[in-house]
Amino acid sequence: MFGASWVILDDDGLGTNPFNFGQYHSLLYPTRAFFDKYIYQGWSVEGAGAFSKYNPEKLVNDSLNITGSLFSFDANIKYSAYKLLGSGLIDPYIGFGAGATVRSLDTRNTAKSFSPTLNVTLGVNLWVSNNFGFQVQSAAKLGLTDFFKTSDYFQHTAGIVIRIQKPDGSKSDFGKSKYNVKKKHGKIKIKGGGKKPKES
Q1: Residues of the chain whose pLDDT is less than 70?
Q2: Phi/psi of residue 177, each to 5°?
Q3: Which of 7, 47, 56, 65 has the most CB atoms around its CB within 10 Å?
Q4: Are 91 and 83 in contact (CB under 8 A)?
């Protein structure tokens, strides 16, 4: 699977209120791209990159007038309950992994300019067809440079996802016997020993 998402950044420093909608930072266009490779029995690996821009009118770690940008790069392992639910419309999943967050330098921002992160994600894909759907996800990112402090943040995303289904494991048509050329020739026996056998 691969897709693109709009990013809603929650970096207000109020960990006890993860859905403080009035203080979210967002842009009008998608700024997250991701790729998800299925492995086995609902497990997959995901790579993603995202960009956010601070709105100086919104809180950043309890402060206003913070400017700059935030870049995140993540690698996660995910487990989907899609098959357990009958492979229908709803495809919920959980994930965990690691990443790195880079913030453009603003001396008023108390968060670290670079921070490795531990990620915990919760999301759902809504499949409107076999190959196309919508994805909504929330990710808690814990900064390892100052655990449970100013480098932590939430990243909420919503976007589209495209799925390329893998064949069922059968061989390609070109591997089937109807394309094989037989090299052995059988001999047709003809009555009358004086005549030379013909080949087919």
Answers
A1: 15-18, 166-200
A2: -65, -25
A3: 7
A4: no
Is residue 148 included in any domain, yes or no? yes
Residue 198 CB neighbour total at 10 angstroms: 9
Q: Which domain holds residue 122?
A: 2-167
Environment class of 33 (CB within 10 Å of its CB; exposed 0-12, middle 13-18, buried 19+): middle
The amino acid present at 190, given as its one-letter code, is: I
CA 164 – CA 174 distance, rounded (Å): 21
Structure tokens at 45: 């690996």
- Asked whether the whole model's pTM tops 0.70, one would answer yes
Structure token pair of residue 66: 């913070």
Domain assignment present for residue 180? The answer is: no
Residue 17 belongs to a domain with what CATH number?
2.40.160.20
> Do the domain assignments include residue 188?
no
The structure tokens listed for 22 are: 């009035």
What is residue 188's predicted lDDT score, i.e. its pLDDT?
56
